[in-house]
Amino acid sequence: MSISSAITQVNNEFSAALASQDKGSNLDKDSFLLLMVTQLKYQDPLNPMEDTEYIAQLAQFSSLEQLTNLNTGMESLTAATNNQQMINATSYIGKQVSISGNSIGMTTTNGVTSVSSFRYAFNDTVVNGYLSVKDAAGNTVYAEELGLKSAGTTFEFNWNGRNLKGEQMPDGVYTVNLAAYNSSGEAVLSDQVVDATVTGVVNEGGTVYIGLDGGQLMPLADVRQVTEPKVVSNGTTSSGSSSADDDTLSAGDGSSSADSNSTGSDSTAAGSDGTTADSGSTAPGA
Questions:
Q1: The pTM is what?
Q2: Distance (Å, whole) CA 18 – CA 14
Q3: Contact call for residues 164 and 141 (beta carbons, < 8 A)
Q4: Looking at the structure, do residues 84 and 97 belong to the same domain, yes or no?
């Protein structure tokens, strides 16, 4: 067999082996072994591979196989851990949680509109700023001006679901954005928490999420407190108000940055028509 024919045969054999793998996959241990065997098969008999080189390639193959098996084992362990987290999270269903984030949900049942409660605390004294509510498309539907607010104090915002014109907004998930500044004009960080009732659990892309009664889907890892839902006088449960204890919200960690893109020109002062958002100072968990 000529040298060119041998090279062509080697290329054909190796190409056929690669074609049998999944499209776009990297070389695995089988491909590595094929390379080594093919090298031995077509080596020059007058200049064979040195035994030290052969041993080195065997050691590399052994290391590759162990790493491949380790990677497979870690993937299985991760999947099992995620499944166990999902099973454990089902115990949250029906419970009220305080979870880091700024997504609030609005639902209407039998003509009664319920909106998730949003709480925040600043790590520095705020002299001015704005709070805005945006829909899923990023449009500002409500805004109000923030006055002087002390550092370390928890404030609660309960939106009534109406826009700046007083029109009722449709059910859905909205985001609350804060843009706050201190006396030096510097942006002030805030800690933000949403209070809602858990309605379900989802495992998506290897991450476990909890579904909330407002329609939000938020990471399980962001849950900061789990409590029994509040019961009002008529015997029903309520998830539109805060139920977290004093240690739920800490202004010092600065987990959320101030949103400097919040719309300031649309801000309105609280009116007397029932559309006022409660952003006054409250004790944590009140």
A1: 0.60
A2: 6
A3: yes
A4: no
